[in-house]
Write a structure and sequence with these properties.
mainly alpha
């Protein structure tokens, strides 16, 4: 089994690291502005719910942990790189579902409709980029090991 091209996994790692930083900033903004998540249930206090449910503009703890694992595993040059790539797909699925959930959620006094819609669209874009980068890593592993004659 061949490993993905280091350039492909490096792109995946850099994007996921930037995503982690942006998620921390979004969480701080959401807690200060009290923008609780509305996906699945009506949220009222972003400060109490950001770990378990995330906020209207940031992911909860589980996808964040997966992002950290992608950042740690994607640059490896052994079979653990494949776990990192697989976790990128899982993270994409989770944030994509969350994005759709925020888009279809009913706005509340705490979380206006435009915030939910823009956040949902942004998370769907993040999911698409994660899928594209993970797929790029998978495809790069199918390159020939030596130049053809």
């Amino acid at each position: 089994m061949t490993l993905p091209d280091p350039a492909a996994t490096s792109r995946l790692r850099r994007f996921t690291l930037a995503l982690l930083v942006l998620n921390v900033i979004a969480t701080i903004i959401a807690v200060v502005a009290n923008l609780p998540a509305q996906f699945g249930d009506v949220g009222t206090d972003a400060g109490n719910e950001f770990v378990t449910r995330g906020t209207a503009i940031s992911a909860p703890l589980l996808p964040v942990v997966l992002m950290v694992l992608v950042v740690l595993l994607a640059p490896r040059r052994d079979l653990w790189v494949w776990v990192g790539v697989a976790l990128a797909y899982l993270t994409a699925a989770m944030v994509g579902v969350g994005g759709v959930g925020e888009i279809v959620a009913e706005p509340t006094a705490d979380t206006p409709g435009p915030v939910l819609t823009i956040s949902g669209i942004a998370w769907l874009a993040v999911a698409a980029v994660l899928i594209a980068l993970a797929t790029s890593a998978v495809v790069s592993s199918r390159r020939p090991l030596t130049a053809p004659d």
